[in-house]
């Protein structure tokens, strides 16, 4: 069915037009033809962005795990559903078929039930990237419990805050986890977190590393013995389309993380639909997304989207640098991966290494490459295109957010001609708008503004857990009747979108709006520069001026700093104009990043304006030590 699997540009435009002319009709058709519903909906869509209230497929009944597992058993029961690649390359990969996944999810679901978990209960999942993580969240969905995955690299404070915020009584974890050379004592972190979580009554522990753990009597239980005894089938709980499926906290790049609530029916339809199109997924493909399931990318495009399409999805426990920087490519070669989806931060890290790490492997199985999470700079885009994709694989630069549930703007490979640094065109059903400061929509092409979405799509988050007011204030108050993304974007002469960065980070210099991404892009073109981040700081005359934090490549370390500064500013003048020249440049060893690899510009902004007393929420920071050293260097 063409609506569901777009194959050329003309078809994209046809489908897109149809989706805008009649969104309800469009999504109804997709929902009807490609999913298993226990009962159909009474209405396709009801919405009011001023409240805000949104419901898709109201009155419909389903269980998402029936769609992700059960309905595949008859036709692809022996097909690999999850392909688990362990941290240690010498440990054997595990192929979990759809039949096996069904049994393991059912058993896990029965264990949860035996432990008293009921529909609507929140279960916090703090597990590393091992099969039990995917199985545990599917088990929650099987019985109607709301899962909230907390990335297993977060500290005990970040964990306890999230447990208390969503009011979970149960935590699922493991004894430990492997990350490259390191072994992390996850259970000890949980123990510490639970000192401030009095409501948690049960902790189920998976054995992974075999490390020593303390098991608290009456609270902590090894899960394997329970699974061994559990019954191998579990009748799915029949859910309403608008029942919550999960809560997931945003990355915290811009402030205190928000617990986004996603519901069942619309989320399933949209993630499955976008997965199929954006990755041009075919039955025999082996798809690999390197994200952690602790992020929305992992929820939508490792678990739900791929499994709803009956795909084989790779789950990787390790890191790109272990045992060496060739690991990703070794895994691609070994499993003949066809679609590879990663983040710009990983690409930049790999591009810094010797090219042999890539060329040593046979990557000819690859068909489509993807990126997500941050704007991808031009240099990284070309490296990915030339060396990983051998100029044959379209790159899908996918723009979306935890709040959007699925990809909203992206090329459709083999249909949309790609353009470096551009996320290109909205997917069917997505109606973007660029707004100016006065709240007017900016029409036409070759314009830039604040990116909003005018019409609901099925996987939009419905609220922030326990704080509907914050949901309204954050997303629906800046521009009346529109969802505000918080990002800035430009639309080029053919209507392609480029995300230029967070609106919070847009710097106004002498009355000009400057996005961070295009300036960083120009800087990164300098052969001595590895990475950069720019922020604004107050300036007497211009109002604001630009401050650049720049990491040099090893080869650039002994270059004359003053010459470098001059060359960098020349590049900016060439690419953007003298208005964007940097007033201050600080060469630094590292940049503060979130655990998902994004630069935390709000911290750099504070340092640049010498306001370091209160740096805000830094609980999701990967490298707090870098902050100290940047502050010292800046003095
Ligand atoms: P918080 O909302 O807590 O500040 P966050 O916005 O980093 O955290 P996510 O939902 O993980 O949390 O990230 C979404 C954001 O990531 C987008 O709003 C956008 O700024 C950025 N982003 C994601 N994909 C792309 C992309 N392809 N190009 C440019 N930016 C992207
Ligand atoms: Mg955000």
From TrEMBL:
Group of enzyme by EC: ligase
Pfam families linked: ACAS_N, AMP-binding, AMP-binding_C
EC number(s) stated in the UniProt entry for this protein: 6.2.1.1
Gene Ontology molecular function: acetate-CoA ligase activity; AMP binding; ATP binding
Keyword tags: Acetylation, ATP-binding, Ligase, Nucleotide-binding
Domain of life: Bacteria
GO biological process: acetyl-CoA biosynthetic process from acetate
InterPro entries: Ac_CoA_lig, ACAS_N, AMP-bd_C, AMP-bd_C_sf, AMP-binding_CS, AMP-dep_synth/lig_dom, ANL_N_sf
Domain Acetyl-coenzyme A synthetase N-terminal: 12-68
Residue stretches making up the AMP-dependent synthetase/ligase domain: 71-461
Residues annotated as domain AMP-binding enzyme C-terminal: 519-598
Record has Nucleotide-binding as a keyword: yes
Similarity remark: Belongs to the ATP-dependent AMP-binding enzyme family.
PANTHER family: ACETYL-COENZYME A SYNTHETASE, ACETYL-COENZYME A SYNTHETASE 1
Protein name: Acetate--CoA ligase
């Amino acid at each position: 069915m063409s609506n569901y699997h777009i194959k050329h540009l003309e078809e994209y435009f046809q489908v897109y037009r149809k989706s805008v002319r009649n969104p309800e009709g469009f999504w109804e058709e997709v929902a009807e033809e490609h999913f298993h519903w226990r009962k159909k909906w009474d209405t396709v869509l009801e919405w009011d962005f001023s409240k805000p209230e949104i419901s898709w497929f109201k009155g419909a009944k389903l269980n998402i795990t029936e769609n992700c597992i059960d309905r595949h058993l008859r036709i692809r029961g022996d097909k690999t559903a999850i392909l688990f690649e362990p941290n240690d390359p010498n440990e054997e990969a595990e192929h979990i078929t759809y039949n096996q996944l069904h049994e393991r999810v059912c058993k896990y679901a029965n264990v949860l039930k035996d432990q008293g978990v009921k529909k609507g209960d929140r279960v916090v999942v703090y597990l590393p990237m091992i099969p039990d993580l995917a199985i545990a969240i599917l088990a929650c969905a099987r019985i109607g419990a709301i899962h909230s995955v907390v990335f297993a690299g977060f500290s005990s404070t970040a964990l306890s805050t999230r447990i208390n915020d969503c009011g979970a009584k149960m935590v699922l974890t493991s004894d430990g986890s492997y990350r490259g050379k390191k072994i992390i004592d996850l259970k000890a972190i949980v123990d510490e977190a639970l000192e401030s979580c009095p409501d948690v009554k049960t902790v189920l522990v998976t054995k992974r590393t075999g490390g020593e753990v303390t098991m608290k009597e009456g609270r902590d239980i090894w899960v394997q013995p329970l699974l061994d005894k559990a019954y191998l089938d579990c009748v799915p709980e029949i859910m309403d389309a608008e029942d919550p499926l999960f809560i997931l906290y945003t990355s915290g790049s811009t402030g205190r993380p928000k617990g986004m609530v996603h519901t069942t029916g619309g989320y399933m339809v949209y993630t499955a639909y976008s997965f199929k199109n954006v990755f041009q997924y075919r039955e025999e493909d082996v798809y690999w997304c390197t994200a952690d399931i602790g992020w929305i990318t992992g929820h939508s495009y490792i678990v739900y989207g791929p499994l709803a399409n009956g795909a084989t999805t790779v789950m990787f426990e390790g890191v790109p640098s272990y045992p060496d920087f060739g690991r990703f490519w070794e895994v691609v070669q070994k499993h003949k991966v066809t679609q590879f989806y990663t983040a710009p931060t990983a690409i930049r890290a790999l591009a810094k290494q010797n090219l042999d790490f890539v060329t040593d492997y046979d990557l000819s199985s690859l068909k489509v490459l993807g990126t997500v999470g941050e704007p991808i700079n031009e240099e990284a885009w070309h490296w990915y295109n030339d060396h990983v994709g051998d100029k044959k694989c379209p790159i899908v630069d996918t723009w979306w957010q935890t709040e959007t549930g699925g990809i909203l703007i992206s090329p459709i490979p083999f249909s949309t001609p790609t353009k470096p640094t551009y996320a290109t065109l909205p997917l069917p059903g997505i109606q973007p708008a660029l707004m100016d400061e006065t709240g007017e929509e900016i029409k036409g092409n070759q314009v830039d503004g604040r990116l909003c979405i005018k019409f609901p799509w099925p996987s939009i988050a419905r609220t922030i857990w326990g704080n509907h007011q914050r949901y309204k204030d954050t997303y629906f108050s800046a521009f009346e009747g529109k969802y505000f993304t918080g990002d800035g974007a430009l639309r080029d002469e053919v209507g392609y979108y480029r995300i230029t960065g967070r609106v919070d980070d847009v710097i106004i210099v002498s009355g000009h709006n400057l996005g961070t991404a295009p300036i960083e892009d120009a800087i990164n073109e300098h052969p001595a520069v590895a990475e950069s981040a720019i922020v604004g700081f107050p300036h007497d005359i211009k109002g604001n001026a630009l401050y650049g934090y720049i990491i040099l490549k090893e080869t650039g370390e002994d270059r004359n700093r003053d010459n470098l500064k001059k060359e960098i500013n020349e590049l900016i003048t060439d690419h953007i104009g003298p208005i964007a020249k940097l007033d201050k440049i600080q060469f630094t060893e590292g940049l503060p990043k979130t655990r998902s690899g994004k630069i935390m510009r709000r911290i750099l902004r504070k340092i640049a304006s010498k306001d370091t007393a209160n740096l805000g929420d830094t609980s999701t920071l990967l490298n707090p030590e870098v902050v100290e050293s940047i502050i010292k260097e800046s003095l």
